[in-house]
Sequence to fold (1204 residues):
Amino acid sequence: MGLPLHPHVMNIGYVGLGKMGSGIVRSLLRTGHRVVVYNRSREKAEALAKDGARIANSPAEAASDSDVVMTMLSDDQAVEQVVLGDKGIASGLRRAAVHISNSTISTALARRLAQEHQQRGQGYLSAPVFGRPEAAEAKKLVVTVAGEESLIERFRPVLDAIGRKTIAAGSEPWQANAVKLCGNFMIASMMETFGETYAVIRKSGMQPQMFLDVMNELFNSPVYANYGGIIANERYEPAAFTLKLGLKDIRLVLAAAEETATPMPFASVLRDNFLSALADNQEDLDWSSVAKIPARNAGLK
Amino acid sequence: MGLPLHPHVMNIGYVGLGKMGSGIVRSLLRTGHRVVVYNRSREKAEALAKDGARIANSPAEAASDSDVVMTMLSDDQAVEQVVLGDKGIASGLRRAAVHISNSTISTALARRLAQEHQQRGQGYLSAPVFGRPEAAEAKKLVVTVAGEESLIERFRPVLDAIGRKTIAAGSEPWQANAVKLCGNFMIASMMETFGETYAVIRKSGMQPQMFLDVMNELFNSPVYANYGGIIANERYEPAAFTLKLGLKDIRLVLAAAEETATPMPFASVLRDNFLSALADNQEDLDWSSVAKIPARNAGLK
Amino acid sequence: MGLPLHPHVMNIGYVGLGKMGSGIVRSLLRTGHRVVVYNRSREKAEALAKDGARIANSPAEAASDSDVVMTMLSDDQAVEQVVLGDKGIASGLRRAAVHISNSTISTALARRLAQEHQQRGQGYLSAPVFGRPEAAEAKKLVVTVAGEESLIERFRPVLDAIGRKTIAAGSEPWQANAVKLCGNFMIASMMETFGETYAVIRKSGMQPQMFLDVMNELFNSPVYANYGGIIANERYEPAAFTLKLGLKDIRLVLAAAEETATPMPFASVLRDNFLSALADNQEDLDWSSVAKIPARNAGLK
Amino acid sequence: MGLPLHPHVMNIGYVGLGKMGSGIVRSLLRTGHRVVVYNRSREKAEALAKDGARIANSPAEAASDSDVVMTMLSDDQAVEQVVLGDKGIASGLRRAAVHISNSTISTALARRLAQEHQQRGQGYLSAPVFGRPEAAEAKKLVVTVAGEESLIERFRPVLDAIGRKTIAAGSEPWQANAVKLCGNFMIASMMETFGETYAVIRKSGMQPQMFLDVMNELFNSPVYANYGGIIANERYEPAAFTLKLGLKDIRLVLAAAEETATPMPFASVLRDNFLSALADNQEDLDWSSVAKIPARNAGLK
Fold:
């Protein structure tokens, strides 16, 4: 009779079931939402079926009965294909339903998606996330969201269901993507600072781990502890996030900054060093392996 | 009878009573050490007399009856003068007694001090500290120490008395100075990353404080929170540490790296931006005001 | 009957009649070639009619009766439109006829043009040029050409007709575009070196013109003399080549280098400085006004 | 009777007889000046005795009977020693006689020399030179001179005797050193631009020599032709000017710029790359071998 039992239960489509996407879907299911999933390779969808997800045969189908369809894909090209391609989300999503993009994409594509959806009477929010697969699974992501305020409010419960904190960045979807890209730049810059200092430390006859101990006292940040440790131990495999994708993000933050005529000299140095790492066949190592470049430039190994 | 026997009570001379030095002296006095102090302008010494310090009339006098004399001065020149100048520490310190330098000085000067003291049969340790005046007062500094191992062990209690953590960097004193300079470079780099991202954020129509909220979730570091806030609010006065001294430290880290033929491209960018800030009359602002340069280069204010 | 009077007279279409294109057309006409021209705004075509050019009503028409159609347009977008758009060159050019692009475009577009023309049985050469409008008119351009060797040989007389030197860069058209972009990077770097040194010279109480006199003795290069003079006198208007187009070229050289994973740290600094100049509303000044950035960063004016 | 009256014949002491110094002395002798020479290793002095030079046994002796004593030494330390050390020039030079320094030294040392000489009633001019040993011998150097105007005028004939052009930079001697250092920075920057572009060219399947041909057409400068050729052929031995000395000059131009709070981002990149080359044991190769760094950073060889 009358009102639904759980006022926030929504019908959610989810497209892109890599480690991040799968973790997010599990968080959504645990919160009680109904989720229909799609992934190019079906096995990943089937793994989630056990947890209660329904499987769709195309992005369009995942979108068709949903209040909201969410996407987590690796780059602009994949998002364009899934949204605007054949049997894509845009063709399946109902008018007034909404697409929320969790992917780290360019601000340019975010603007285009906003426009494409608007032309179809659909809503669009950018809601990229910070955090690793474990955080996705454990509902501990940090979510940045941007777009029309009323839409943000309507879907805030969904975002709260996948992260520990949701921060609204602005009223235009691409703004959240700029925030995400700037955040990744902050992390990559930190990696470079470890790369440069460890080179000095090593060439001065000291241990990187000792320097890391000092930095842990100083910064007292889990991000410093984590990456500082990976770089000190050169533990670049398996990659949590590949150098190739890291380069993509540096390229995108430079592009986002260029749109507003903002120079980013540190990002320029990073771009050069990521390229040098690529030239040295590090594309599939963890992106923190960019720290090998300052070491090599100091004549180390 | 009378005072309890405290195995670690030492006779300590302390030269250089700025905010940092005075805080350290208070920590030493509270731990029960006997401290004789010297400062060029006598008022600062007198302020500590109330807390139990004895006042010396020269660096040499502060050193003469001490097991150890410690120094905290603003730059190489001041340290050279106080140690090797007229009525300097080197002339007053007994054989076998030790000089511990807490200042942020060049690795080159640390090597010279080690040599000068050795020629006089005196010991020398570099023990630069991380932390602000409040931390000095509250015994919460992070202390990096380097030099002969037996000396470090002998004076570890003194170092433990001024900080929350003492980390040994190596057996040559200058190594601790390299660590300190690298640490300051890490902090200055973080400032630049805020400068660049806030410029993008502002030109993209968003609030730096919002971005800082995201970064606080991400890095969860008091250093990020502190400097991120100062830069977001452009609260560069009063300076906790002046831009002029910050430039000095960047210059010194580049010099330390050059001794081992280690390029530091981020430090090079920082040097350029500190110089540009100097050219813009920011020398007495807080060193975090280096973040004004990327803002200005993006056409902001 | 028998052989044509002048073995090299060709039927040439020319699209894009800015200063450079018009100068080239005049050189072609003077050499005896038959030229049919097209320009979006017809006045420029009419100015050439007096010199013997025939006027076409579309790029396709300019191409339709020609052995070769040449293009000189300001950027990738304009070239795409003129070649692949409605009534574009690709639709008008006969099989076996050839398109020679004189524009400074991306290596990526050059590859696409090669492919598009090939699919239509048409030939394609990239033949970007170095030199200013006066040089175009006076047949003094330096021409870099790349593409299939037999095509280069066939059209070498046409290229020799527009420049004082034709240099073959390789067998793939985009290679010539890489050369042109690298050349523009060399020039832009030289501008930056004048910007940096003039700043030191001025702040040291000396005259840029004096320093230029020394550099003219040293380098003895007309390019140094020309740009060194423009920058010394800050004569940035009227622009021979706008800063906006200069930024485009720096962007394109970085993109070309990225395709082969080649870092270009000087180009990265240039990109930052061009962006800073853009943020300071210099887009319509001469591109050499990028030299204002190091001056401003030194606190000058 | 006897020698012709030559109004400009002077008594000249010359200290420092490396390739440059020896070439200059020969130019002076050919012009009719009387020259007394000193060099630490006497053989080089003896080689000049055949050409008419008299040999002195110390810098002081070379200075003692001279109207002017000139010096050409490799670095600040050597100049300090020769001028202010035991039996140094300052102790031998008469009041009102003048020291002209041809060496590439720091602006700081130039200021100190000016002061030291002034205190002794002696004159001082900085007159660093551009050009290689062959140019020194052939009287084809470009001379930059700074100091008191009347002194410059008095000794202009001497400077005209060693170069093809004498340019006055300012009234304070150090200004000429700033000009010389800026000039060397211009040349080093050009090397880096060849390093970066050749890397792109090679990775794009083209020949550096072809690119150099284009640049020679474009810049038409002997300096480009010379260094572009050395770098294209990687002909870094024997060194005309070692990388180690090149690094010294980059360090000095950065120091000169720092004195006036002038950032030089290209010079910062150069410093990083020279250090990287040093870490790779290139110290005795020609300084143009700094171009190996961008090649290596692109994964070449």
